[in-house]
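Saturday, quiet lab. Running sequence design on the structure tokens for the scaffold JK sent over.
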């Protein structure tokens, strides 16, 4: 909700024949309907609005009352009126937006790091501390060449890690390397330079900026040892731009011999060298290569940026200048702008001083090395005739294809299949005789995604042709003998089959698939909507997603005409052992409702492991299951088995925490769940121990901690629980009060203590909601999947007992459970009141909408069977509530398919419909993007490659 009333453009026309009250109602109603007044927007008080419009207050009171009766406004005594949260999405908008460009299904383009790994929490802390310590004067128009505190911090960092000779007075802070390069070239041009040597191949932007500035670009070839220094004398450039640590895009490292030759040439000609220290931080199989600059700081400009180490969005770069260029570059910068935003500079200085960049780089080197290794292994397996080079450092590799392949056409063919990458020729200024090559960035994709992409790419390699290729070239048809021989070497290993004969098409359909779903509309959150497709399944995996006109054969064929295929659904928040009466029935109930994977989030270890073993033994008639074992709680345990199931175990101190994590790891858990009563010290140990074992971490926000410090350290958070307390005004006071009461002098049970704290603070925190505090909380959670369980939190808004299909839900449950739930529902309906106060439910919807708008990832889970959550069915209710909260249907689908796979690092094989993915699928009779409740209209389910039709699904329940 907006924290202050909005100004409104309203016009009252006296003498128009319509009453002033009716005019006011119509104008406000129109503003709400077209989205100009969004849900939660606060309106002026009746007194203020009457004064602004020059009308009587009773007219405004009556208009507000009418709109409240129609459901457009929420009007409460003592509170500002606001637009109702229940108002649906605007049917139109006054702000026209460009349609978003379609993102590739798999992004292998080079030049960008893994943006999801940006250390948001550490950056937020650095920004907060920088703001706290910044002098007032630093917020004004200070030195445009950069904050001294950052120039000093950079000097210390660059001297330590790159050996750069740095005097802070010679450092200029820029808006990334692009601005730094432009400023430098302008200064050189002003000093008489005309010819700039550039590596060939190189960034296209590099030669573009040279030409835009009226300078002549001089391409200098690059080979395996880097820049061809021997050609510089005959080319006679006035300056040379060089990337000695990791040349882009070839990946070459400037050899020691050529370094010496380049320095000798520069001294002899008294020429400036511009060192772009590209990708120097990421090295894997070689010792660090020092910068060139300290070898001749009088002639070498050193340029760097945070774009590859952190994120391009920071727009932070730097130049370390020779003395003769300091004033010319500073003059160019003064004429360009007032410098880089000062707050970001102070934050980066704090970030460097804390050692956060060092920690981030250590973590990312390990991540990127694993992804590089996956790329190399995949090329060796699926493209045996290709070779990989330029892999000792950086974020991309060069894949050299055999002679006779068309690199450009291959990239275009891949683009049509949703795979984005580049080819070497796109970076060349002059054509040379060389093998065709692809440029593949591995930073943004997990290892399974890279493997699957290379496997698919192997089937898309396009041979050179003497005539222009058809508009949709396909390597699945016979083009020439060369193409067939080439593909047989590439595609056969990808399918685990013998290479096909040269006279047969090398396709995924060379042999009959196990299952074909033909002429179906395919929908997933990565690829969007693909109409008229045939999906082929073999050995439990998808082997092709073809155009429906393409011929295919299969042992079993399903006509998908008029139907919609989505990935198998996940319930991301399940308790298999919470109610013993339901445990045996739950697997069938899940599959019956299209749920092919579940995440069990807490239960007694022996009971859960037994249940998991049973499910995993039943290969096709049970969902895939991932489990955590017991909740890692504090000295007080909320679910301790006293009057409620024993879901949690105590971690009263750090020694117990270490021992319990070790026990869970030995039991083979898939992740760890941290609960609400742990102390910050125990939380730290649980996180550290889980990470050391490679276990993802799920959590509630512990009551002794703030959400903004917990979120960045875990991979998912459930229930929205305790987040509201960090979104309130003065959250520190609320935290101090909770910590005091958690000392538990009354020695009450963990469940009672938690309930008391929630009663004391939850609704009070909602009432004291502070938008600025909440913005900080959400910023700290942009890498943390939120599992809001709206179905449970918002029961006061939509009781399950009042649903028209409640009897249908009960009919699938075990008889004793159905009878109990039916009786409870009848009593509740007879009472004529919701089962709980709706305040927190309304807040939950609002908070989820804010999370989505802030870019926080959302996952779908239901806490089944807690709170009358019917296993299986409840997930569809959850997706419905997510849409009600403001998520588009496609995002609700993403929450129930791809987000859970991302939590477990399995997005490369689960959550989308593409070749190489596990064959967990749901066939629907209606479009879920038109109405998300259509996910309940299930025609068939494919579980681990096995087709379950309606009869088979019905047989899974009582």
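Result came back. Writing it out in full:
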């Amino acid at each position: 909700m907006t924290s202050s009333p909005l100004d409104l453009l309203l016009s009252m026309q006296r003498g128009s024949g319509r009453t002033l009250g009716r005019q006011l109602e119509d104008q406000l109603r129109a503003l709400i309907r077209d989205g100009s007044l969004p849900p939660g927007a606060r309106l002026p008080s009746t007194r203020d609005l009457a004064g602004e419009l020059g009308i009587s207050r009773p007219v405004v009171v009556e208009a507000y009352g009418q709109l409240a009766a129609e459901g457009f406004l929420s009007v409460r005594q003592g509170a500002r009126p606001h637009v109702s949260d229940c108002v649906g999405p605007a049917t139109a908008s006054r702000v026209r937006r460009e349609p978003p460009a379609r993102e590739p299904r798999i992004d292998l383009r080079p030049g960008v790091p893994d943006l999801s790994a940006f250390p948001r929490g550490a950056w937020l802390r650095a920004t907060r501390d920088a703001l706290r310590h910044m002098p007032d004067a630093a917020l004004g128009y200070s030195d445009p060449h950069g904050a001294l505190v950052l120039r000093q911090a950079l000097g210390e960092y660059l001297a330590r890690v790159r050996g750069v000779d740095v005097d802070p007075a010679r450092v200029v802070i820029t808006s990334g390397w692009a601005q730094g390069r432009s400023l430098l070239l302008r200064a050189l041009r002003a000093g008489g330079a005309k010819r700039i040597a550039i590596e060939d191949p190189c960034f296209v932007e590099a030669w573009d900026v040279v030409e835009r500035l009226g300078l002549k670009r001089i391409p200098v070839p690059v080979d395996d040892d880097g820049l061809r220094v021997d050609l510089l004398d005959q080319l006679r450039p006035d300056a040379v731009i060089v990337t000695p640590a990791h040349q882009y895009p070839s990946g070459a490292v400037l050899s020691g011999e050529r370094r010496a030759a380049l320095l000798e040439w520069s001294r002899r000609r008294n020429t400036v060298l511009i060192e772009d220290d590209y990708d120097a931080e990421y090295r894997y199989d070689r010792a660090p290569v020092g910068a060139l600059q300290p070898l001749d700081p009088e002639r070498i400009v050193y340029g760097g940026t945070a774009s590859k180490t952190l994120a391009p969005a920071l727009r932070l770069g730097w130049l370390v200048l020779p003395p003769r260029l300091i004033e010319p570059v500073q003059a160019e910068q003064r004429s360009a702008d007032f410098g880089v935003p000062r707050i970001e500079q102070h934050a980066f200085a704090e970030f460097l001083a804390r050692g956060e960049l060092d920690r981030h780089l250590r973590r990312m080197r390990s991540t990127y090395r694993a992804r590089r290794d996956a790329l190399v292994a995949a090329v060796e397996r699926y493209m045996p005739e290709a070779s990989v080079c330029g892999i000792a450092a950086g974020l991309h590799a060069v894949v050299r294809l055999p002679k006779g392949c068309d690199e450009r056409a291959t990239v275009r063919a891949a683009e049509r299949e949703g795979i984005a990458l580049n080819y070497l020729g796109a970076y060349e200024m002059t054509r040379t005789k060389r093998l065709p090559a692809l440029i593949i960035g591995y930073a943004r994709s997990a290892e399974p995604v890279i493997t699957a992409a290379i496997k698919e790419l192997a089937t898309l390699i396009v041979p050179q042709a003497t005539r222009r290729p058809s508009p949709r070239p396909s390597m699945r048809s016979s083009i020439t003998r060369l193409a067939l021989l080439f593909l047989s070497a590439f595609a056969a290993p990808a399918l685990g089959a013998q290479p096909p004969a040269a006279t047969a098409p090398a396709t995924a359909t060379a042999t009959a698939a196990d299952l074909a779903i033909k002429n179906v509309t395919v929908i997933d959150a990565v690829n969007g909507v693909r109409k008229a497709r045939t999906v082929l399944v073999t050995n439990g995996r998808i082997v092709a997603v073809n155009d429906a006109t393409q011929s295919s054969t299969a042992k079993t064929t399903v006509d998908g005409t008029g139907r919609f295929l989505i990935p198998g659904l996940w319930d991301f928040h399940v308790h298999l052992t919470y109610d013993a009466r339901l445990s045996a029935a739950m697997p069938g109930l899940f599959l019956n409702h299209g749920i092919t994977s579940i995440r069990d989030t807490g239960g007694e270890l022996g009971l859960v492991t037994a249940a998991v073993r049973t499910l995993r033994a039943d290969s096709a008639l049970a969902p895939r299951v991932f489990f955590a074992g017991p909740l890692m709680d504090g000295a007080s345990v909320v679910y301790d088995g006293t009057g409620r199931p024993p879901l949690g175990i105590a971690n009263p101190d750090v020694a117990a925490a270490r021992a319990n994590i070790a026990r869970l790891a030995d039991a083979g858990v898939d992740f760890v769940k941290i609960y609400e009563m742990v102390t910050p010290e125990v939380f730290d140990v649980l996180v550290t121990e889980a990470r050391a074992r490679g276990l993802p971490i799920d959590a509630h926000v512990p009551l002794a901690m703030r959400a903004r410090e917990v979120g960045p350290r875990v991979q998912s958070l459930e229930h929205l629980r305790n987040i509201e307390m960090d979104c309130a005004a003065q959250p520190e006071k609320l935290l101090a009060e909770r910590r005091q009461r958690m000392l538990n002098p009354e020695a009450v049970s963990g469940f009672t203590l938690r309930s008391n704290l929630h009663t004391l603070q939850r609704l009070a925190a909602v009432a004291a909601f502070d938008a600025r505090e909440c913005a900080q909380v959400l910023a700290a959670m942009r890498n943390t999947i939120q599992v809001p369980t709206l179905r449970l939190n918002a029961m006061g808004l939509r009781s399950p007992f009042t649903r028209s299909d409640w009897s249908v839900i009960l009919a699938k449950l075990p008889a004793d459970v159905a009878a109990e739930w039916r009786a409870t529902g009848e009593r509740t309906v007879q009472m004529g009141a919701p089962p709980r106060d709706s305040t927190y439910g309304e807040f939950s919807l609002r908070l989820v909408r804010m999370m989505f708008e802030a870019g926080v990832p959302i996952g779908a889970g239901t806490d089944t069977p807690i709170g009358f959550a019917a296993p299986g069915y409840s997930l569809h209710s959850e997706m419905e509530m997510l849409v009600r909260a403001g998520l588009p249907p496609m995002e609700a689908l993403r929450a129930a398919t791809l987000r859970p796979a991302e939590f477990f690092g399995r997005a490369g094989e689960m959550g989308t419909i593409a070749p190489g993915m596990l064959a967990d699928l749901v066939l629907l009779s209606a479009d879920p993007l038109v109405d998300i409740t259509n996910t309940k209209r299930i025609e068939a389910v494919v579980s681990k490659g096995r087709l379950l039709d309606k009869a088979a699904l019905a047989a899974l329940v009582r």
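Notes for JK: Confidence is low (pLDDT under 50) at residues 89-98, 466-510. The chain has 32 helices and 33 strands. Ask whether to fix the surface positions before the next round.
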